[in-house]
Request: fold
Amino acid sequence: MTAHTTNINMSQDAVDRLTEGHYSLYGFKAVKSTAKGSPLIWFATKTYSLTTVVDWEEHYNAYTSRTDIKPNTLRSTLAR
Reply:
């Protein structure tokens, strides 16, 4: 596992406008593949400030199927 940290720095004006506009901050993992795929949303929050710290560790799994995975469906890993 590899640990990562990133700091998201915003001005007070940006924080105020995002808060007043009820915006969410999303974290996502981009997908690069020759197959069809969509970015994975890791988190969504309306809690952010001048400096928002995001920490994560990488864990990867693979999934195989004989049928297409339908959009907006949740898959869980049953075996590791």
Q: What stands out?
A: The beta strands are 3-9, 25-29, 40-45, 51-57. Helices lie at 12-20. The chain has a mean pLDDT of 82. Residues 12-20 form the longest helix (9 residues).
